[in-house]
Every structure is written in C-alpha cells, then in structure tokens.
ABC transporter permease
Amino acid sequence: MKSNGFERVGQAFIVVLLLVLCVSIIYPFLYMLAISLNTGADAAKGGVYLWPRSFTWINYEIVLGNSVIRHAYLITISRTVLGTVGGLAVTMLAAYGLSYKQLPFRNGILMYVLLTMLFSGGLIPYYIQLYNLGLTNTFWVYVIPGLFSAWNMFVMQKFIQGIPEALIESAELDGAGPFRILFQIIVPLSKPMLAALGLFTAVGHWNDWFSGAFYVSKQNLIPVQTFLQQLLTAQDLSAVMSSNQNQEALARSSLSNITLMSIKMATVMISALPILAVYPFLQKYFVKGVMVGSVKG
C-alpha cells in the first residue's frame, strides 16, 4: 500500500525528532569524555566540546590510582552482582508461589504486598528498622533490603500465569514436583523477563548513592556512586590525591594541568561505562522482556 504525502511527512518528522533526542542524549556523554581526556588547564579555557584538544590519560591515572575509588568499585560490583542475583531469586520464588490459585490466603497475601507499593513508612522509620536489624554500617545494607520488589514480583507473576497451564499439568502428570517445574519449565521460559528485570535491578544497584550516603558512615564501605557524589560536591582535589600512584602520576604532570572538573569527568566516565557495557549482551532478551504482555498470542 502506497503512503500518501501526510504519512511521509509524519514519518520524516518522527525520524527528525528521534535524531534530535539521540543527539541530546549522546552529546553530554561525548562532552564529558572529551573533558576527561583533556588536560584540565586547557579545558578550563573553554572550547572543548566533542574532541580533546590537549589529549592526556593523567585524569584516569589519578582516578584509578586512588585506593578509595578502587575499593568503592569492589563494593559496587559486589552489591550489584549479589543484589541482582538474590533479588531475581526471591522475586521468582515469590511470584511462582503466588501464581498458584489454590495457594491458601493467596488473595490476602497479594493485597498485603500491594499495600507496600502504595504506602511507605517513611525514611526515619526505615532507618530505625535497619538500625535495629543491625544492617547500618554493614555491606548487607546494600543487598538485603532490596532483595524483594513488589513491582517486579507482580510483573513476574503475570508472566508466569501467561504460561500455558497444559504445559505445567503435563509435567505434573509425569511426576514432576514444584521445584522441577520451576527450574525445568518456568525459568527457561522466563529468560526474557528475567533479563529485563535483572537489568533494571542491576542498574538500580549500580546507580544507588543514597544508601551509602545515609546508611553507612564508614568510608571503606561506600560504593563508587556515593564517592562520586562526594567528589561532585568537593571544593578541592584532596579526595583523589592521597595514594602513592597518584603522587607518581602527578610527578609526570604539573598540578596546574589538573583541575577538579577534569577529575570529576573521568570519575563519571569510569562509573558509567561498566553498566553501559552490559546492555549489548542483554539486548535481545531485554527487547523480548519489555514486549511481554503487549500483544496476545
């Protein structure tokens, strides 16, 4: 079917709009990359937009040479892996159990879970609860409170309920128990949904600076995003000039070539690139996961 003039104009408008949105998203990233690869003194003069004018690795050497940042990365990676895997496991088990209509008190449990989505006790009661549980100033404050997500559970439950009942009934007739059905039928069929929810959960853990800023006071337990937040509000370079490797890097470059802004941009790039690298590997599952439920088979 041939498209008329109005349709072609509409398609052209959509393409232009998407290009503008892409540029508005990509340009800040390229600008930060250019500043991070440029000497600080030269970048302070202005005029660096898409490509470094005075190329250098010194900003990254200083950031990666900081033992505090390296340890913060270890905390962030550990909490992201443990929090994502644990969160998906708890979400899957809860959704799988509540997908059985014969489960006793099922409606009451679902209503109770729904209430946690609509109402919150507030920050102070939440902090008191974490303190009474002994989670404050520990690594597990990043993992345990986020193991269960009501929203993820409801999404996963609806997905499981969409699996043909005949498939599960045939497995039960063959003598399969609940756990065998879960691991041999439900989990393999749920890979797209698990990938989508896992990506959202991992990004949430990776980008979380709030927990490290308010629930942890020990510097050796802060994640990289909390360190970045502290660095962005800093007024001097003392936060990244402490280690021996930093001193060696400074010996090869005068202090006047380094600015707080260039260090900030390098830290932002280092904290953003790892999670961005995950997207291509999960893209095929991610697209399938977000489309689940959009059309009926």
Observations:
- Residues 5-36 form the longest helix (32 residues).
